[in-house]
Amino acid sequence: MKSLTKEVDLHVEELIENFSHLSNFEIMTMQLQKFKSELDKGMRNNLKKIIFIHGVGNGRLKQEIISILKN
User: How far apart are CA 16 and CA 69, in angstroms?
Assistant: First the structure.
């Protein structure tokens, strides 16, 4: 039976091996692309719950995710 829940880790070290050359903007862009991609896949696959792990930092990624979800 297919699981109806998925967990997605948006920490940059989970998305790319070497990120030292990337700016904060580039890192957030990559994280948001992964978020949107996984959200789209989850919706297509009728997932009931997706847990996005976004870390703490200054909360900017979380704010962006909430903004996307509201729209």
Answer: 24
User: Tens of pLDDT along 3-28?
Assistant: 788 999 999 999 999 999 999 999 99
The pLDDT assigned to 4 comes to: 86
**Residue 64 and residue 36 in contact, taking contact as beta carbons nearer than 8 Å:** no
Q: Are 44 and 1 in contact (CB under 8 A)?
A: no
- Sequence-ordered list of residues with C-beta below 8 angstroms from that of 1, at least 6 positions apart, any chain: none
Q: Is 57:49 a contact under the CB 8 Å cutoff?
A: no
| Long-range contacts of residues 53-61, Cβ cutoff 8 Å, at least 24 apart | 53/7, 53/8, 53/9, 53/10, 53/11, 54/10, 54/11, 55/10, 55/11, 60/28, 61/10, 61/28, 61/31, 61/32
